[in-house]
């Protein structure tokens, strides 16, 4: 296991019960340490909070539904990490994702880390990775401009 600065993994969750356990397992499987994991249950009515409570060492914050952006900000306000990993309640991380990014960031402290990502709908084994022009080292403003070259699109929250 790697050791370095604390990374806070911040997860907003609204009715994410079908996915949150697998998401949390992918975070807990990270080779990098130390991590703190904060889940903000944003007014779920499907038992998402009960799923989160099954895991040890995860901070659960419950609030009335206020939206994903507010939930992310609440998680950020409670975080202690020097680095932040945003993640949605239905996202998965490869086991080396944070370690690889932390290694790059320690050598390039003025950078923002991005990553290759793929899309799946029900089974992670069906993930498709469609290469993107932003899957390379770029200046932060160049990355933002290139990521929006074809319109607004989706900005993956686990960058």
Structure description:
This protein has 5 helices and 4 strands, in the order βαβαβαβαα. It folds into 2 domains: 2-107, Spore Coat Polysaccharide Biosynthesis Protein SpsA, Chain A, CATH 3.90.550; 114-151, no CATH class. The two termini are 21 Å apart. It has a 4-stranded parallel beta sheet, with helices on both faces. It is an alpha/beta fold and 159 residues long.
The biggest beta sheet reads: 4 strands, parallel
Distance between the first and last residues' Cα: 21 Å
Quick one: how many beta strands?
4
Q: At the fourth CATH level, what is the homologous superfamily of the largest domain? A: Spore Coat Polysaccharide Biosynthesis Protein SpsA, Chain A
| Rg over alpha carbons | 16 Å
> CATH class of the largest domain, please?
Alpha Beta
Physical arrangement of strands within the biggest beta sheet: 3-2-1-4
The portion of residues assigned to helices is 25-40%
Keywords:
159 residues, Spore Coat Polysaccharide Biosynthesis Protein SpsA, Chain A, four-stranded parallel beta sheet, 5 helices, globular
Topology, pairings included?
Elements: E1 2-13, H1 17-28, E2 32-42, H2 48-53, E3 58-63, H3 68-78, E4 83-86, H4 97-107, H5 140-147
Parallel strand pairs: 1-2, 1-4, 2-3
A few lines on this structure:
The protein is α/β, with parallel strands linked by helices and 159 residues long. The protein is built from five helices and four strands; from the N terminus they run E-H-E-H-E-H-E-H-H.
